[in-house]
Write a structure and sequence with these properties.
Strand order of the largest sheet: 8-7-6-11-19-20
Number of strands: 24
Shape: elongated
Radius of gyration: 38 Å
Distance between the termini: 97 Å
Largest sheet: 6 strands, mixed
Number of helices: 30
Structural class: alpha+beta
C-alpha cells in the first residue's frame, strides 16, 4: 500500500474517535445527535481530506502518519475547547479555533507549495536568524507588545493579538539547521588541547553562547520561561544530532543550570514559579491556585475519567473553571474527563509524532532537511513535555500551550506550519519505501560526510530520550490519578471534593439519645447544605464541612462514612458504591448523651475551660465540652474571625487540643505509682511544712499552709505539695515517669478528633527539684532541657487516669462513635469496648479509690459530695504567674463507678472546678437513674 493510501486509512481511523468526542459533548448538553451537532468534526475532517489531496500532489513521498496524528490531536483539542467554552469569558472561542485550524491547514499546504527544496533555505540563513530574533523580541516594543498573565509575548495591533514567538521559533530552527549543516565539521573537530582533554575552538562555542543569551533575554524581559526552555533545548538537540559530541550537552546543561540559578536569585516571577512547584498548597488561594485546582481535577480522573463535560477543571454551571484552562491547563481537563487511559493515549500520540518526526529526519536526503526535521519535531515534543510536566507538577509550571490541542491561533498556526515542513523533509527522502534501517549505507547527499549509521544512532538516542520523557509523564500521571488520588481527594482544602459532595446527601450525626447534631438539607438547585440544628451542642466534637474551609471533627474523621463510601451495611451498598450510584450517606450515632453534654456546657458557660465525662467500664465518652464554644451554624464566621486574629478563637477544643498543668489531680498518678511500686503506703508519714527545700530550691504548699506530720493518705486529702515533693524524690524520676506512662502520658492515642499527647519529661534530664514539683503536678524546667517539662495533660487524659482507677486499674480506650447506620436504618458498625492497657493492679486501684473518697468526704473536695451517692475524686490547683487553673477529677459511685468526670476552669477561683464537676456528675447520675 502506498504512503498516501496509508495516510488516508489512518485519517479514516481517527475520524470516528474525533466524532465520538463531539457526540459525548452533545449528549452531555442534552442535544440531539444529528448532522448539526456533528458539523464541526465533519468540517475538520473535510479540511484534512483537502490537505491529504494536497500532500498527494505536492509531497507524495512524505511520512504517512504525521497528517493523521495532527488530525487526531487537533480534533481532540477542538472537542475539549468546545466543552470548555461556555464556562469562560469567550463562549465563541471554539468557532475561532476551528477558523484557525482551517488557516493552519492552508498555511501547511502553502509551505508544501513554496518550499520545494529545503536546501535552498541555507542561502538565506542569516536573514532567517535576523528575522527570527526580531520576531522573538518584538513583544518588547512599546505600544505593540502586550503582557498577559505575567508574560510579555503578545503583539497587539488594533483588535488583533498574536504571539510572534510561535513563528519565530520555526524561523530560528530553519536558521540553525542551515548553520549546522554548513559548519558541523568545524563544530565536530576539537582542536584545542587542555591537559588530557581536547576542546573545541572558542569560535565553535559562539552559537551555543548566542542561543543561551537569547534564551536568557526571553526569561528576563518577556518572562516567558517555557519558550526559553524549548528554544534552548531544541538547539542542544540539533547540535548533538549534527555533531554527536556529548561535550555540547554537558556545556549546554551547565549553562542552563547557571542561568536558572541566576534567574531564580534575581527575578521574583521565577521564584514564584519555583516555590509554587515545590509547595502549591502553601498558597492555594493565590499563587498556587491554578496548580492546586489542576491537581485536584487530575486526581479525580481515575482510570476512565468522569465523562466529557462532567469535570470541574473545565467549569460547570455551579463551579468556575480553572483560569486559562483552555490553553495552559487544558491537559488537566483532559485527564479528569477521559481518565488516565485517555490522557496516556494523548501522550502516546505525541510520542508517535516524535518517532515519525525522527524517522523523517533519518530518511531526509540532505543535512538541512534532516536537521529541520529534528528541530521542528523536538519543538513539538519538548513543548508538550514541558507543559504537561508543569500541569502535573513534575517540573515547574512555565505557561506554554499544548501543541495542536490548546486554544490559541498562534500556537495552532505554528503547529501546522511545522507539519508542512516535516512533510516536505520526508518527501525529500532516500526513497519512497526506504526507512532508517534499510538506508544505512547511503550518504545524505554528495557533499555530506554524516553517514547513515552515525545519524541513525543519534536519532535512535533522540527517540529513546523522548520515550523516556513520556514514560516519565505517564508514571507521574499514574502516581497522581491512582496511587495518590485518595490523599489529594481527602485534602481539607480540596474544593472539588466538597463541591461534588454537595450534590449527594451526607448522613446525619446524632447523640446517643437521638438528638440530631448535623444533617443535610436540599437546596433549590438540587445541592445539599449542611445544617447544624442543635446550636452549640457538642460543636467541638461534630466539627464542620465547608467548601472554603474543609472539614473538622467527626465530620472529618468519619467523612467517607458520612458520604456512604465506607462502613457498608449490605452488599447492595457495596455494589452501589462501586457502580457510582448516588445514595444517601451513612448516619453516625455518637456516644454523647445530650443531657450530660448540655450539663457540661452549662457548667463551663462564662469561663474558659473543658470537661470530659466517661464511662470507665467501656471508654464511651458521655460528654466532651470546651469553652468558649460557638453556634455550629456560624462556623464560617467564627473561622474568618479566627483567621483575622481579632479575638481569641472559640474553635480550640480545650478538652483534647490543649495541654494544661494538671496540678494536684496528677497526685492520683504519683499516689498510684508509689503504692504499686511499694515506695510508700497509705500510712507512711511525712513532715508537711508550708515550705521545704528540695534540690536547693523551695517546694511549697498552696498558700504555704503547714500541716505538720501527715500520713500519705492525709496528705492526699489536703493536697500537700511538700509531702508529694518528698515522695517524688523518694521514688525517683524514672519511676515517676514510668508510672505516668502506664496511664498514657507520652503515648499517642488514636482518637477521632484532634488529640494532643500528654507529656512527661525525659527522666534522665530531670533535676531533683523538677522531680519534686512534677510529683505534685506542676511542670517546671529549670535547666531548659530538650524534653518538655512535665506533667502536661489534656482534660481527656486526666479523665482516662480517673477511669483507670475507677475500673480496677484497667484503662479502656476512649471512643466517641457508638454506631453507624445506612440510609435504610441497617446497622453496619457497633462500637465494642476495647482494653487499652492495665495501668495498675486492681488492689492498688481500690486502695487509691479509698484515699480519694476521703478527699471528697473530709478533704479539699467536699463540694463534690452528692446525696445518696459516694463520690471519690481529687482536686487540683495549677498555679500560674497571675492566676490558677482549677481542676477536679471525680468518679461515682465510688466503688462501682459508671461515671468519671474531669474538669478544668482556666483562671478559676479555688474550688470552682470541684463545684462544676459536682453539677455535671449529678446530671450524669440522674440520666443513669442512680439518683
Amino acid at each position: 500500500m502506498s504512503r498516501r493510501n496509508i495516510e488516508l486509512v489512518l485519517l479514516l481511523v481517527a475520524a470516528p474517535v474525533v466524532a465520538l468526542l463531539f457526540v459525548m459533548i452533545a449528549i452531555n448538553e442534552g442535544q440531539q445527535v444529528n448532522m448539526d451537532s456533528l458539523s464541526v468534526p465533519i468540517g475538520i475532517f473535510a479540511a484534512f481530506v483537502v490537505a491529504h489531496l494536497a500532500v498527494r500532489k505536492l509531497a507524495p513521498g512524505a511520512d504517512p502518519a504525521l497528517l493523521p496524528l495532527a488530525f487526531g490531536l487537533s480534533g481532540i483539542g477542538i472537542a475539549f475547547i468546545t466543552r470548555i467554552a461556555p464556562f469562560t469569558d469567550a463562549p465563541n472561542m471554539a468557532q475561532g479555533q476551528v477558523v484557525w485550524l482551517f488557516v493552519g491547514v492552508a498555511c501547511m499546504i502553502v509551505v508544501l507549495a513554496l518550499f520545494r527544496n529545503l536546501d535552498k533555505i541555507a542561502n538565506y540563513k542569516y536573514t532567517l536568524m535576523l528575522v527570527g530574533i526580531l520576531l522573538l523580541l518584538s513583544p518588547m516594543v512599546p505600544g505593540l507588545g502586550q503582557e498577559i498573565y505575567g508574560s510579555r509575548i503578545w503583539l497587539h495591533i488594533g483588535g488583533f493579538s498574536f504571539q510572534p514567538g510561535e513563528i519565530a521559533k520555526i524561523v530560528i530552527v530553519l536558521f540553525m539547521a542551515s548553520y549546522l549543516a554548513e559548519n558541523r565539521e568545524l563544530l565536530s573537530v576539537f582542536t584545542v588541547r587542555m591537559g588530557p582533554f581536547h576542546l573545541p575552538d572558542i569560535r565553535s562555542l559562539l552559537p551555543l553562547l548566542l542561543m543561551w543569551g537569547v534564551a536568557m533575554v526571553i526569561v528576563v524581559f518577556e518572562k516567558d520561561l517555557g519558550s526559553a526552555m524549548v528554544f534552548f533545548f531544541v538547539f542542544l538537540l540539533m547540535l548533538y544530532v549534527a555533531t554527536g559530541k556529548k561535550f555540547y550537552l554537558v556545556v549546554g546543561l551547565g549553562l542552563i543550570t547557571v542561568g536558572a540559578l541566576a534567574a531564580y536569585a534575581a527575578f521574583g516571577h521565577v521564584q514564584v514559579r519555583v516555590n509554587t512547584w515545590l509547595d502549591p498548597f502553601s498558597d492555594a488561594q493565590n499563587t498556587g491556585y491554578q496548580l492546586c485546582q489542576a491537581l485536584y481535577s487530575i486526581a479525580d480522573g481515575d482510570l476512565f475519567g468522569v465523562g466529557l463535560g462532567n469535570g470541574l477543571a473545565g467549569g460547570t454551571d455551579a463551579f468556575n473553571a480553572i483560569p486559562v484552562v483552555e490553553s495552559d491547563f487544558i491537559f488537566a481537563d483532559i485527564a479528569e474527563e477521559i481518565g488516565l487511559l485517555g490522557a496516556a493515549g494523548v501522550l502516546l500520540l505525541f510520542l508517535c509524532f516524535a518517532i515519525r518526526g525522527f524517522l523523517t529526519a533519518a530518511r531526509a536526503k540532505s543535512d538541512v532537511s534532516s536537521f529541520v526535521a529534528v528541530g521542528l519535531t523536538g519543538m513539538i515534543v519538548l513543548q508538550a513535555f514541558i507543559i504537561v510536566g508543569g500541569v502535573t507538577r513534575l517540573i515547574p509550571l512555565t505557561g506554554l500551550t499544548l501543541p495542536f490541542i490548546s486554544q490559541g491561533g498562534s500556537s495552532l498556526l505554528g503547529s501546522f506550519i511545522i507539519v508542512g515542513f516535516l512533510l516536505r523533509a520526508g518527501d525529500e527522502a532516500t526513497g519512497v519505501g526506504t526507512e532508517m534501517l534499510n538506508g544505512t549505507t547511503s550518504s545524505l547527499h554528495s557533499n555530506s560526510v554524516l553517514g547513515r549509521i552515525s545519524l541513525g544512532k543519534r536519532l535512535t538516542n533522540g527517540m529513546l530520550l523522548c520515550s523516556a520523557l513520556f514514560a516519565l509523564l505517564v508514571a507521574n500521571l499514574t502516581m497522581i490519578m491512582v496511587v495518590q488520588a485518595d490523599s489529594y481527594q481527602t485534602m481539607p482544602g480540596n474544593n472539588h471534593t466538597l463541591a461534588k459532595e454537595a450534590k449527594s446527601e451526607r448522613g446525619t450525626i446524632s447523640t446517643y439519645d437521638g438528638i440530631v447534631l448535623a444533617r443535610s438539607a436540599m437546596d433549590d438547585d438540587g445541592s445539599y447544605e449542611r445544617i447544624y440544628p442543635a446550636g452549640d451542642l457538642a460543636t467541638h466534637v461534630v466539627g464542620y464541612v465547608s467548601q472554603q474551609y474543609g472539614t473538622s471533627g467527626i465530620e472529618a474523621s468519619y467523612n467517607e462514612t458520612l458520604k456512604g463510601q465506607e462502613s457498608f451495611a449490605s452488599w447492595t451498598d457495596v455494589l452501589n458504591d462501586m457502580a457510582g450510584v448516588g445514595t444517601a450517606g451513612n448516619d453516625v450515632t455518637l456516644t454523647i448523651n445530650s443531657k450530660i453534654q448540655q450539663a457540661a456546657q452549662d457548667a463551663l458557660a462564662g469561663n474558659k475551660g473543658a470537661a470530659v465525662v466517661m464511662d470507665p467500664k467501656t471508654g464511651a465518652i458521655l460528654a466532651l465540652a470546651s469553652a468558649p464554644t460557638y453556634d455550629a451554624a456560624d462556623f464560617e464566621q467564627v473561622i474568618a474571625q479566627a483567621n483575622s486574629g481579632t479575638a481569641e478563637t472559640s474553635l480550640i477544643n480545650r478538652a483534647t487540643g490543649t495541654l494544661y498543668a494538671p496540678g494536684s489531680t496528677f497526685k492520683m498518678v504519683t499516689l498510684a505509682t508509689a503504692i504499686e511500686d511499694d515506695v510508700a503506703r497509705e500510712s507512711t508519714t511525712f513532715s508537711s511544712p508550708g515550705t521545704i527545700t528540695i534540690g536547693n530550691a523551695t517546694v511549697s504548699n498552696f498558700n504555704k499552709t503547714s500541716y505538720g506530720t501527715q500520713t500519705l493518705e492525709q496528705a492526699t486529702w489536703w493536697s500537700a505539695n511538700t509531702v508529694y515533693g518528698q515522695l517524688g524524690v523518694q521514688m525517683g524520676a524514672d519511676k515517676l515517669v514510668e508510672g505516668a506512662e502506664r496511664f498514657g502520658f507520652n503515648q499517642d492515642l488514636d482518637f477521632p478528633i484532634v488529640m494532643y499527647t500528654s507529656l512527661m519529661a525525659d527522666p534522665s534530664e530531670m533535676t531533683e527539684w523538677e522531680t519534686a514539683w512534677a510529683a505534685a503536678g506542676e511542670p517546671v524546667n529549670p535547666m531548659n532541657h530538650e524534653s518538655p517539662a512535665g506533667p502536661q495533660a489534656t482534660v481527656l487524659q486526666m479523665a482516662m487516669v480517673g477511669s483507670a482507677i475507677a475500673n480496677d486499674g484497667v484503662e479502656m480506650k476512649p471512643y466517641l462513635v457508638d454506631g453507624v447506620y445506612n440510609a435504610n436504618g441497617q446497622r453496619s458498625f457497633t462500637a465494642q469496648p476495647e482494653k487499652l492497657r492495665t495501668s495498675i493492679s486492681s488492689d492498688t486501684a481500690k486502695r487509691v479509690r479509698d484515699i480519694l473518697k476521703g478527699v471528697v468526704k473530709q478533704g479539699t473536695g467536699t463540694t463534690a459530695q452528692i446525696n445518696g451517692v459516694e463520690v471519690a475524686g481529687k482536686t487540683g490547683t495549677a498555679e500560674k504567674a497571675n492566676s490558677n487553673d482549677s481542676w477536679f477529677v471525680g468518679m461515682a459511685p465510688a466503688d462501682n463507678a459508671s461515671v468519671v468526670v474531669a474538669v478544668v476552669i482556666e483562671d478559676g477561683d479555688e474550688g470552682v472546678g470541684t463545684q462544676k464537676a459536682h453539677d455535671i456528675l449529678q446530671t450524669a447520675l440522674e440520666v443513669q437513674g442512680l439518683i
